Amino acid sequence: MSNHDNVSNAGNRGRISISTILWLLVAAIIVPEMIFSAIAFHRNNQAQQAMLTTLAEATAGSIAETVDRQIAGMVTTLRALSTSGSLEAGALSDFYARSAQALHDTGTHLVVADENLMQIFNTRAPFGTKLPDITDIVTGERALATGQPTVSGVFFGETAQRWVFNVMLPVHQEDGPARLLILSQNVEALAGALAARNLRGGWNAVIVDGAGSVLASSFSWTDVGKPFFLAGRDLPAAGITLPATVEHEGETYETIRARSELTGWQTIVWAPTSVVRAPVVSAMRMLALGGLAIVAVGIVLAWVLGRRITGSVRRLAGDARRLGAGEHVEAGDYPVIEIATVSQALAQASKDRRAAENEIRFLMREVAHRSKNQLTVVSSIAKQTARHARTFAAFQDSFQKRVQGLARSTDLLIAGGVAGVELRALVDAQIEPFRPSDAARIEISGAPFRLSHQAAQTLGLALHELSTNAAKYGAFAWPEGRLAVSWKRVGDRLEFLWRETVPRVRRRGDTRGFGTEVIERMLGGALEAQIARTLHADGLECRFSMPLARLEPEAAHPKPEAAKGGAA
To answer: Which class for 6: exposed (0-12), middle (13-18), buried (19 or more C-beta within 10 A)?
Structure first.
């Protein structure tokens, strides 16, 4: 090994190569991004899981409430039927006819049974047909014992020959035997409570009775009457939704349960955990694969660039040594622009040191020239910003007010919503960024008036253009300028006046600007405004006459609702 190599190795101790720097740079870029992506993904996943749980809880509670309303309606119907004069008089034939007519096309049938639970009549069969005992004897006995409305579970009706459920109401007559009024309904009537819910992402809903048998299912209607495999676990209190993760036969399920106090039934919204988390797993896999691909590309690029840069630097170091030895150096062809520039500089230095010094002086002058240009630009920006400010405090206050004014204007338009936007607030918000320090130069008057969201956006844009023009040419451009804004209702129209007063009118060209297009096209087209624009000797006057129907929120013009009807 030569003495030069020994010196080089000794001088390189404690230093790192370009290849190492590139490796570290790749790691510094990729590793934090991967960590941040993983954290962001984890938090997003948690947020999505919380949102899904909330939606499932809302769905379960909504289904339970819908079923409760349906059952409560059936109880109300039974109470109404129990007060029938035909029933009290024992005219069962007439009571049968009236009940059958009242329940026609409702999917509900009336059964009357005696205290021995023998069917007296059933509107599913003609009056006088010999009928067996009621199928659901247990619920009937409980209803007679408690004297309260009682809801059965699902069972296969012998008369109906279908899966049904009953709502029973005992009726005790003073001069007659006790009766049991039963509303029998096919379980298909509960389908609407599930069909109206937009269940996605593998989620299903099921309604089960107190014994855990299926009354209705969005998963498969062949499950009706069968025990639900997730039913008998941790019943929630009535009106409370209970989320839980349940394991069944080696597979886990996400469940949300809601129990009805009226019926004792459960509404269960459920989905396999694997299905719920499938999008998360897929996204995590894509994130991992994408991260590995980025790392691989970074490694390859770092290796290739490191080799090319290292070789170029070594050649350049050899040129520098030859220059120090007084040898002739030719400019090399290097792939890196910066290294090629250094090589050309070394070649030029080997030819003429004086030329190199002149080149350095030229570069220094160029830097000084560019710095002066930058200072000039900064100075021009500062002058434009502070043109109307007499003191630094005034400049600072004006700048702050403009920023805050724009923010308030945006917040006002967004917050308007269906309630509408107050016209006074809209005018203030649009003028605020241009408002002079002397508040007496602006006069705003008019009765409270609310604009619809669309009208506020359109009129706000026109006011912004008027305010901008006032700042450039009108009331805000003169220290003595004044602005008066007013509005009033005239019949079915709103008359709006914008009047500027200035010491001298600044004449502009005849070119139609964007502000004029906004006022005439948007205000005239969208709001059907009649526009009168007059340039007086002492300032601009704009009058807008707009129909109230185009301005006021829809709540100000209520439409009569269609009459509602339906069978009791």
So the answer is: exposed
Residue 414 structure tokens: 């967004």
Render each residue's pLDDT in the chain as its tens digit; 568 residues: 555 555 455 555 666 767 677 767 777 787 787 787 778 777 777 777 777 777 777 887 888 888 888 889 889 988 888 888 888 777 888 989 888 888 888 888 999 988 888 888 988 889 888 888 888 888 888 888 888 899 988 888 888 888 898 999 998 877 777 889 999 888 888 877 776 666 676 788 888 888 888 888 877 767 887 888 877 666 676 667 778 888 887 888 888 888 887 888 888 888 888 887 777 777 777 877 887 788 788 777 777 777 777 777 778 778 778 777 777 777 777 777 877 788 777 778 777 665 665 667 755 664 453 344 334 333 433 443 355 456 777 566 555 644 454 455 456 666 655 677 899 999 998 898 888 888 899 999 999 999 887 788 788 888 988 988 898 889 998 999 999 999 999 999 999 999 999 988 876 555 455 567 667 877 888 889 999 999 998 999 999 999 999 998 876 655 554 434 333 3
Length of the chain measured in residues: 568
| Cβ neighbours for 353, distance < 8 A, ≥ 6 positions apart | none
Domain ranges of the chain: 53-276, 301-381, 393-555
Question: Strands of 482-490's sheet, edge to edge?
Answer: 442-446, 482-490, 493-501, 539-547, 530-536
> For the whole prediction, is pTM greater than 0.90?
no
Q: How far apart are CA 565 and CA 377, in angstroms?
A: 75
- What is the rounded CA–CA span in Å between residue 434 and residue 401? 9
Q: Which two tokens stand for residue 77?
A: 């119907």
Measured CA distances, 31 to 293, 299, 368 (Å): 13, 13, 41
List all residues 6 or more positions away from 94 whose beta carbon is below 8 Å from its beta carbon.
86
Question: Angle at Cα 478 formed by Cα 476 and Cα 480, nearest 5°?
Answer: 105
Q: Take residue 428 and report the two structure tokens written for it.
A: 């203030």
Q: 3-state class of 95 per DSSP?
A: helix
The SS3 call for residue 26 is helix
Nearest alpha carbon to residue 493 among 458, 543, 456, 444: 543
Location of structure tokens 């920023």 = 403
CATH number assigned to the domain covering 53-276:
3.30.450.20
Query: What are the angstrom distances between the C-alpha of 143 and each of 136, 247, 311, 502, 562?
Result: 11, 37, 96, 89, 41
Q: Tell me the backbone φ, ψ of residue 132, rounded to 5 degrees.
A: -80, 180
What contacts 51, CB < 8 A, 6 or more positions away? none
* Radius of gyration of the chain, Cα coordinates, nearest whole angstrom: 42
Asked whether 487 and 506 are in contact (CB, 8 A), the reply is: no
CATH architecture type of domain 393-555? 2-Layer Sandwich (3.30)
Residue 98 near residue 85 (C-beta atoms within 8 A): no
Q: Which residue type occupies 22?
A: L
Q: How far apart (Å, rounded) are the C-alpha atoms in residues 69 and 24?
A: 67
